[in-house]
Design a protein that fits this description.
4 copies of one chain form a homotetramer. The first copy, chain A, is α+β, with helices and mostly antiparallel strands. The first copy, chain A, is globular and about 45 Å long. Chains in contact: A-B, A-C, A-D, B-C, B-D, C-D. The interface between A and B is medium-sized, with 19 and 19 residues. β2 of chain A pairs antiparallel with β2 of chain B, so a sheet runs across the interface.
Amino acid sequence: MTEPTLKFACPVDVRFQDIDIGGHAHHSRALIYFEEARAAYWREVVGRPGLDDIDYIMAQATIRYRARVLYPNRLEVRVGVQKMGRKHFEMAYEVRSPAGDLLIAGGSTQVMYDYHTQTSKPIPADVRAAIEVHESLTEGRAKP
Amino acid sequence: MTEPTLKFACPVDVRFQDIDIGGHAHHSRALIYFEEARAAYWREVVGRPGLDDIDYIMAQATIRYRARVLYPNRLEVRVGVQKMGRKHFEMAYEVRSPAGDLLIAGGSTQVMYDYHTQTSKPIPADVRAAIEVHESLTEGRAKP
Amino acid sequence: MTEPTLKFACPVDVRFQDIDIGGHAHHSRALIYFEEARAAYWREVVGRPGLDDIDYIMAQATIRYRARVLYPNRLEVRVGVQKMGRKHFEMAYEVRSPAGDLLIAGGSTQVMYDYHTQTSKPIPADVRAAIEVHESLTEGRAKP
Amino acid sequence: MTEPTLKFACPVDVRFQDIDIGGHAHHSRALIYFEEARAAYWREVVGRPGLDDIDYIMAQATIRYRARVLYPNRLEVRVGVQKMGRKHFEMAYEVRSPAGDLLIAGGSTQVMYDYHTQTSKPIPADVRAAIEVHESLTEGRAKP
């Protein structure tokens, strides 16, 4: 199995309001940090810049907490698509400190969704092509 | 393998502010809903009522989104401990609509943590005992 | 000047995630607590139950913090309309503890808004009438 | 009366999660944007870098919404102290778009607070001096 490449990186500033009574970012913020990177990927890699272009819904998410996220801090959040099915795609994430320490890792599965008909839909051809080119995927999977 | 029992239930009101541009609760809110039930469990089952009594940190969380969470809504969030190790414990969650539909499911792994020494610590005996009694666990596992 | 009546009350549960590093609800949560009461008022007093029925935008808000909001806690949030103009209306809020202590007070000004044309609009006649009846307002103002 | 100078500026990235069902940042986010600038001011102007150094509590906040905050967006948030009393200080805020448009304005009153004794305390001399130098205040007030 190949190592995730996660070429795409996005800086995310921790906010004071992310910090909970424990003195570190509340664990739910991991999904917010992932989301900022995913949204930037959707704009810049997939080429869909608008809020209305986010035409997928979350099916699953997994988060592994490795170290505390402190404040103030500028995180580097990496994201990549590791697998595409007909209607869904799987992403992996890494959140690192400025020093490069891995703070949070995770993955998520998204399903393309038509908000008008409220049903799932196939991944559009241009979305699929843009992701395959960026990720060097072959038939929806990372190359062996 | 036994079915999760998840005897403990906690009502959680969806807030307007949980709703994102898609018209449903933002996916990060799943962790907030889980947390309200987990905190109530810690108060009522484990018998530790104070904020300072939350002496564990999150190691991992998994969320499976089954249906949209709408507003206004009073959710029923169920939680239970399914396994205890020496220092960690695993919980399962179910978020249901008033009609009983499963909206979100998930799990999390917590590690007991000493905030003063900033290291993990064993599950205290009274915590372990309270959970075993409530969950009818035998040696840290659900009965076969 | 008459005392605000604020007849309408709505319970709001404090969430663990509202609590910041200071051990009390983050000050931004005041607006969330106000909002839950305002949304309930819009559904129950004004008679507009849907998310699409919230056809106003915020113009101004003022918050006065009187005492710390702790967790766990079920707040009583009171809200009322104190003045209506042609296109805007002014609300007052009180957040109280279960013991009746005033924790937060505040006010907000909303402007009726047409999201399609992205311009302000007059307060619809049925909205105005429902508010006047509930609040015993005379010509858009509290009775002297 | 002198115009607020608000020399201190801090960039704040809007997050996708700030956006509500109306397609713009939820109105409560104004306080979060203010806070990021205030925390940076406390670190950089006042010279107190740590989380434990935030030894004040909010007494009052006022927000005036001028235009919608959209996503993605890098805001410029300006903050300054306009008045100091013995125990409290008043700040003003401006949130601007990259093009310089005023999106949100506001103010807040903070009271110095001793978390151990849970009572207010005077503004420490070094804090007062650092603010007076930065803001060119004379006896706690902006120069006429």
